Amino acid sequence: MQKALVTIAVAASLGLGATAAQAAILDDVKAKGYVQCGVTGGVPGFSAPDSNNVWTGLEVDFCRAMAAAIFKDADAVRYTSLTSQERFTALSAGEIDVLSRTTTWTMSRDTQLGISFIGTMFYDGQGFMVREADGIASALDLSGAAICIESGTTTELNAADYFAANGMEFNTVVFVDQDEVVKAYEDGRCDVYTTDSSALAAERSKFANPAEHIILPEIISKEPLGPVVRAGDTQWFNLARWTYFALLEAEELGVTSANVDEMLGSDNPAIKRLLGVEGEFGAPMGVENDWGYQIVKLVGNYAEIYDKHVGPDTPIGLERGLNALWSDGGIQYAPPIR
Amino acid sequence: MTDIGFVRSAMTDARPAPRRTSGVGAWLRKNLFATPSDAVLTVLGVIFLLWVVPPLFNFLFGHAVGPNGTVEECRMPEAGACWAYISSEMEFFIYGFYDIPQHWRPNIVFALGALLLVPLMIPKAPFKRVNAVLFLFVYPIVSYILLAGGVFGLTPIPTEKWGGLLVTLIISVVGITLSFPLGIILALGRQSKMPVIKTLCVAFIELIRAVPLITILFMASIMLPLFMPQGMTVDKLLRALVGVTLFTSAYMAEVVRGGLQAIPRGQYEAAASLGLSYWKQMYFIILPQALKHVIPGIVNNAIALFKDTSLVYIVGMKDLLEAVKTKNDTALEWQSANTATTGYIFAAMVFWVFCFGMSRYSMYMERRLNTGYKR
């Protein structure tokens, strides 16, 4: 049966084009000339079509950064829209080279699925949204408030735990569908709406009057979202991981897509190493020495990407919070390039 | 004496029919208020229409924001449908992620398809045979080359970028065209006296019919890659096409079998007694009669397939409905209270136009072919 299926697949793929990948992913990627990037079906700010019908977003830019490091061309990326059920299969079957799809880093996924998380592109976590008029400033003031929540989700369990731990009265209005939850909150059937803070912000941007709603500062769960690669190919894993670190390092060193050309002449050895002016950091990863320069030049540093897609000036309007650099009070931290 | 004759020498003028049986009042009485229950239903119906139609009209047209409107108008509290959103995102709804400068390619494919399909559907148009060969064999190749590119200097566009109405039409046209002959072969195979062929056909039909389409697509998207050698992948559009075609062909086979069983045994025997081979019997005698019986069933399947194409979101393809949904979720610059509703109404209207068209055409074909069974 399997043989027959393979035969059919071989015959079929001759017709509509197939991608072949064997041992080293980087070699295959170079041979085909693009990075195949698995993205969501459309989550604003993370991966979504823009007004020119091109994929855009924080996670999309990670794939673009990898393409910049490999090909000096951030557009050498093809996107595969994946549902959450098929994402890991697609990755382990080699349909995509990197999965950048709002995927939460958990231990079981990291250890049991034959995949490796390369880092946390975005620290998400469950938050609370309330109406500004209600004058609530902290999640600890929410005792007894009616909370709109999706039933049977970790969201519900997290909230229950948080309320129990703080000795508050937990009063929920439960729905089975996310859209119903939002609608109920908007119609005033409850005082609080809770889900992951990035989703809260995205939903808020769709409200008739977003400014009337505030997201409370407390984050009650850990949802680290990060890109994922297949396990077992260290070279590809390193390239993905250091692409991410280069984005952070560039922000920390103040290198932006606008000033990167001037920075080439900088005396700071850390900047010289990042931009490939000094040292040999590209070759061991299988890319050219100016990989860091290309990433920053073509895509930008982490702050630029963040502010462009989900930052305070976008409709999503998320403050940096945990996603600020370690030096600015957040927990985004890159090991030194040396 | 004079005989008093009472003979009319001229016709009297016709008098109008009694008022009770003619005019608006009578029509109303006859059709709407014939019995007390009719009267109650009429009143309820009118109330229902008054309740539904004016708000609906206001939403769709009266208070709607026209195609050239702005998002600010759509966000007004009293605004209705936001047609500006549809016109602004129309390209995504039709072509998906297909590169905007290359849109002329799908446009040519659409135009060619219409040019070939319309004369094929008009009985009086000449050159049917050439037309059919062009549509069934040349057109798919030309379309594929145009859409996928990579040869003749056309920029290659991977199928992941195809989307919207384009994908809906590709899947439904390919699905309908392929599943029809496949279904006929399966139906004939099921009636065959050769045990192997018969068993295979029965097994295929019963297996596929017993599984929901959504499961077949899940299989194609999640299980299939696990069977493949590492790095070997099958194009997603192809998976969807194969899944949808196989699924529909099983249903088509059962519809055609119904037609075959409606043909009296005498027809088979008569055909055989003429000394025709099996295929000639089927082609000249049996199938023309059998298929005529089951046109409604066949069209039913075609319409169902057209609507089922929206399930390909399971393999991550963005068909029309999924394209609309994606923009509803992600086009933040167009967010307003009625944006998503307008998007769904638009998708429903497109689906309705195509399905209604198919249904009307099938009724026309039935009337034209209905030579011996008129009731």
Largest sheet of chain B: none
Q: What is the string of helix and strand elements of chain A?
A: HHEEEHEHEHEEEEHEHEHEEEHHHHH
CATH architecture of the largest domain in chain A: 3-Layer(aba) Sandwich
Q: What's the CATH H-level homologous superfamily of the largest domain in chain A? A: Periplasmic binding protein-like II
Q: How far do the termini of chain A sit from each other?
A: 52 Å
Strand order of the largest sheet of chain A: 10-9-11-8-12
Mean residue pLDDT of chain B = 88
The tally of structural domains of chain A comes to 2
Helix/strand/pairing category of chain B: mainly alpha
Please mark out the parts of chain B with pLDDT under 50 across 5 or more consecutive residues, or reply none.
none
Protein name (chain B): Amino acid ABC transporter permease
GO cellular component, one term (chain B): ATP-binding cassette (ABC) transporter complex
Family (chain B): Belongs to the binding-protein-dependent transport system permease family. HisMQ subfamily.
Pfam families (chain B): BPD_transp_1
